[in-house]
Amino acid sequence: MKVLETKNKDIIIGKMLRNAAFGIILMEIAGAITYIIDGIMTSRFLGDIALAASGIASVSYTILAIISGVISAGGQKICCNEIGSGKKEQANKTFSMVIFITLVVSIIIVLLGIIFSGFLASLMGADVKDATLHNNTSDYIRGFFIGAPGHIFVAVLIPLVQLNGSNKLITASIAVLTISDIAGDFLNVAVLGWGLFGMGLATSISYYLSAFVLLLSFISKNSLFKISFNKLCFYNLHRLVTIGMPRATKRIGNFLRPFFINRLILFAGAGVAMASFTV
């Protein structure tokens, strides 16, 4: 009997993880789509230097992907295990902890991204001696990191929404993300004229809207997960980080490579070469 229960538990958990994988794939596609949209709009309406600056700042996506990857992978697996074991109350506590940790971490990232946007631009390869390139890079970073909570919440929520059985909301959230990003970019270049800051901000707003759509999954009375900060419990925090770290380390190469490549390209051919590489 015990062997049968273990086997059933493994089947349930395996099915949940396979379903969640679909959400993770869509999340990665969504991130690629928004980056491509920003690149096309920037190159057509803001020019080569702006495109070069957005290419330099693209490592910002990787920074958020590493952070959200830890929380997402750890939270997803722990929740799967607890649900598969019939521990719904513990799963809800883990879920609430994940939401709380995501909120706190993302707010800190917003503050750091805005305050140190100039430093980050220099670190990513934009030389302060080239004021136009450096300022454009800094502007994009500020606009982009304003949306850090939206970016991270989308990455964290998609697998949990999948576990919650709200597949249609995932599709809807990605549609909202794509459409609002395109609309925001057009509004920026045609009306507001906020340059690269506006492009980054448009992406940020689109992620906030996408995250809002995903959160609707947990408002339903039939939701498997309920957000509650009244009885926060962090006993799973260590497990969350331990489980999530391998996924983060896989992105380290993507994180470090641009710091060297950007400098090499800018040294060899300045902003025009960087714009070409971004394309």
What Rg is obtained from the alpha carbons, in whole angstroms?
A: 20 Å
Global morphology: elongated
Q: Strand content of the residues, in percent? A: under 5%
What is the count of β-strands?
Answer: 0
pLDDT averaged over residues: 79
How many helices? The count is 11
Which structural category fits the helices and strands?
A: mainly alpha
Order of helices and strands: HHHHHHHHHHH
Poorly predicted segments: 1-9
SSE topology:
Elements: H1 2-45, H2 48-56, H3 59-84, H4 88-115, H5 117-124, H6 131-145, H7 148-163, H8 167-192, H9 195-215, H10 237-249, H11 252-278
Write up this protein.
It is built from 11 helices and no strands. With 279 residues, the chain is an all-alpha fold. Helix 4 packs antiparallel against helix 7 and helix 6 packs parallel to helix 9. The N and C termini lie far apart (59 Å). The N terminus is likely disordered.
Question: What's the short story on this structure?
Answer:
The chain has 11 helices and no strands. The protein is mostly helical.
Please name the defining characteristics of this protein.
elongated; single chain; mainly alpha; 279 residues
